[in-house]
Every structure is written in structure tokens, then in C-alpha cells.
Amino acid sequence: MTEIGADWRVVDGVATAWFDAPSLIEGAALAGRIVELSADTVVDLRATGIRVRLDSAEHAEAVSAAARDLGLAANPDVLQRLSVVFESANPAVVRQFWQRVLDYAPGNDGGLADPLRRDPAIRIRHSTESRPLRNRIHLDVVRPAAAVEQASLGEGSGPYGVRHADPDGNEVDLVPGAALDERNGTADWQVVFSAMACYRVSSPAQQRDLVAEAATLADDAGFPLLIDLRPGLVIVDSGKDQWEDDAHGLDVDFTDLAGKLQTAARQLGATADPGLPRFAQLFLDAADVAAVRAFWVAALGYLPDRRDGVSDIHDPRRLNPVLVFQELDTEETERRRQRNRIHFELAVPSDLARTRLAATIAAGGRLLDESQDRWRVADPEGNEMVIVSRP
């Protein structure tokens, strides 16, 4: 990749920048400028700023200039990307299973990637290490009911009948979503743990106008809506559980906001794609939930869920997957000793890698091994994360 400006860092091979913004409306102004530069740029608009990812550095300086013109400053210290890694003796069959679960596309590294570049990438590494017991890590994936049926995974197990396992025994709870509300006016919306609507647009101008209208409606309501721009697509999203009244602590009727957003999208000529909503989160079983949760809060720079009795932690910018913790029976000693077949990979800018490693060790992590641009760390119960800073 050619030289990029000071606002930008290479994160997981992609030129990436985050620009702080005081509101969705002001972030949407930058998003509109970016769409005019290139319809292929990946943009994630949040109430606190905007992340921009470029496949090449061609438009980096123009994006930076637009941000400066709007008074928005870059903050590279917050850049990171969390992926999921499976270790398997049979990568091909594991890949086939998870492709059906997630509706991902084959990645350049032999893994799987979200075609919309929203949910975490799946990487698959060859390993012959024997680990026959259940992992202490699994995934939750929520998709529209029709998409879950089309995945054809067979009869599920577990307390809710939605648990499935790949040929290695790695588990996923594949959960069917539901309509947001039975009332008229929100038919475009699906609840997939978050409330989400995905709109196809036919031109950059239509995309820009929809983003601007969504930002205005959300700011007027005081709701921190998530707005993602992809080629030919706008995704509007509440964030996990944030559509529920008790989740965000705001006096907002989200179904009312969703209805207004739907009306605006349709008036602009955008078309809902009901098959696209999808949500993925990561579950960790822990004997000492408090200690393990505290480690991941510090290691990832996440925030704990504000609700009592909820173990979730989330990215403050809601760009990376939610982690959820559940109690593991302390008597399952063999399972607790076994190394997981799943670990996480955290890509950070190369100039921030050592700082992130130090923070992770200070949070109780154990450095297991390292190379020039990779550091493998374990949390207090042996769940692993690899910090990577490859260009």
C-alpha cells in the first residue's frame, strides 16, 4: 500500500481512520463527502464519530481534507479489529459449516469474510493438537428466520433448541430473528438481538440523502443509532438490545423512531433487503466470570453493559463484536485445562501494538509467545488472544 497520511493506519491490511464527531449529523456530513469521492468506501457512522476503511490509499488525503474542513479530528489510538480463529485438522469441512451459518464468502487467507464487512472475520488455521472436550468459547449468530432455515443445519440441541456444532465440535447458537413490532410502519425491521434494517440504494446521492435523514431523525430523538454505508447499501441498526426500553436509559420509543426511519427510506426510493440483517457475538465460559470479564474489558478497551445482571461487554464505538460471559462449573477441571480450539485475533496499528500488549499484560494476561508482529496472550483462565500488527 502506498504512503498514507498521519490520520490513517493500516489495520488488518486495510487503510483505516477514525474521526471524532460530536453528533451523527456532523458525522453524516463527512459520510456524504466520502460517498461523493468513492461509492466503494466502507463507512461506519456512530454518534461519537466515523470510521472509514479504504481498499487503497487513493482517497485518503481527500477524506482527511474533508474531515478537516468540517472540523473533525482523527483519533488513530482507537483503531482495532477483532476476528475469530478456529484451529482445525480439517479446515475445509469446518469452513463449509461456518459459511452456511454466517453466509460469509471465502477469504483470501483461506478463512471466511463478511461480504458486508460488518461482522468478525473467521480465520481457520491448521492444527493437529487433540482437544476433544467442549470449548469454553462459542458464537451466537442471529439471522432472519428464513435464512436460518435455509442454512439447513438440522435439528438443534441445547436448552433453546438452537445449538449446532461443526465437525470439530465448535458450537454456535444459530437463532432465528423476528419482526420488530406487529404494528404497521416497521415491516422493514428485523430483531436479530439488535433491531436492524438494510436498505438497497441505487445511487451515491440516494445513499448520502438517506444517511443524512437517518442521522437527523436519530439525533432529534437523542438515540445513538448505528449507520453503516456499503456499496449500494445503508444499514441502520439500534445496537444489541438498545431498542429495548431498559437497555439504554433513554426516554425513547425505538419503534416510533424505526417507523420514521422506514418512512424516510421509502420516500427516498430505497428498498429494504429483509435477508441481510445478521448479528454475531462471542461467548466465553468462565469459572471466575468477574476476573475474566475484567481482563477483556481492559484488553479490548470495552465497556460493561449498564444493566444489572448482564455480563455483556461492548466496544464503546460498537464496531467490534460483543463479548458475553457465562459461569462455568468449577468441577469441570479437564475442560478448564484444555486449550480452546477457538481464539481471538486483535489487529491493531503497528505503532500501537506494544502499548496494547502492555495494557493486556497489566490486566492479568500471560504472554505465551511472540514474534516480530504477533503476541499470543492468555487471560486468567487460558482463553487466548493474538495481537497482530502486520502491515
What does this molecule look like?
With 391 residues, this protein is α+β, with helices and mostly antiparallel strands. It has helices spanning 24-37, 60-69, 91-102, 145-151, 204-221, 245-248, 254-267, 289-300, 333-337, 353-362; strands spanning 9-11, 14-20, 42-46, 49-54, 81-88, 105-106, 112-113, 122-126, 137-143, 163-165, 171-176, 178-179, 190-192, 194-200, 226-230, 233-237, 271-272, 279-286, 303-304, 313-314, 323-327, 342-347, 366-370, 374-378, 384-388. 27% of the residues lie in helices and 30% in strands. Strand 13 (190-192) and strand 14 form a beta hairpin. The N and C termini lie close together (9 Å).
Search tags:
alpha+beta; 391 residues; 6-stranded mixed beta sheet; globular; 25 strands
If you average the pLDDT, what whole number results?
Answer: 95
Oligomer: single chain
Helix content: 25-40%
Q: Based on Cα principal axes, name the global outline.
A: globular
* Model regions low in confidence, pLDDT < 50 over at least 5 residues: none
Q: Structural class of the secondary structure composition?
A: alpha+beta
Radius of gyration: 21 Å
* First-to-last CA distance: 9 Å
Count helical runs. 10
Number of strands: 25
Largest sheet: 10 strands, antiparallel
Strand share of the residues? 25-35%
